[in-house]
Amino acid sequence: MKETGIVRRIDELGRVVIPKEIRKTLRIKEGDPLEIFTDRDELMMKKYSPVQSMGEFAESFAESLAEVSECVIAVFDTDVVLYLAGGRMKDWVGRNLSDEMEKTMRERKSVVLNTADGGTLIPLLRGEPLAFAGEVLVPVIADGDVIGGIALFSKEREVSSQDVRLVQVGANFLSRQFS
After folding, report:
1. CA 164, CA 75: separation in Å to the nearest integer?
2. Same domain for 110 and 164?
3. Is 150 helix (H, G, I), strand (E, B) or coil?
């Protein structure tokens, strides 16, 4: 584990202040859940991702959705791509979402974009433009909070209302796993 050399005191309510530089580097925002682990005389905090905690279930879900829709499916939490199915972009897994994607998910709206209609696709990753014909983005909302999202990317055709419904059903199903 990397040591940062910062010492903090615990206040009377048991709170510890995490310095702004560390929060910015680790992309920890106000309200983000953190897991706390203990090991002998060490206390460790890890950013918690409810979507990632679903593991194989969410991955199998993405693969099934990709198979049915014949499109690329990405399942992500609020920071990184967790699962990708239906495409050869496996190197996208674990990479940070673009600022535009994060902003879109925070708005809690489903987005449907087709390049044929003159729409500009929202990039999934930072510095990685998309070469697809269309995309559907749907946030996964649990207990009123956005915990992630599902994206469908169509390679050769415009996305249809059926694609939108598939992704909405998937996001709804995943959100019910946390309610």
Report:
1. 15
2. yes
3. strand
Let me know whether 21 and 88 are in one domain. no
Is-contact 94 80, C-beta < 8 A? yes
* Same domain membership, residue 95 and residue 142: yes
Predicted pLDDT at 117: 86
**Shared domain check, 65 and 31:** no
DSSP 118-147: TPPPPPSBTTB----SEEEEEEEEETTEEE
**7/161 Cα distance (integer angstroms):** 54
Distance (Å, whole) CA 104 – CA 99:
9
Instruction: Provide the number of structural domains found in the chain.
Output: 2
pLDDT in tens, 18-45: 889 888 888 888 888 888 889 888 888 8
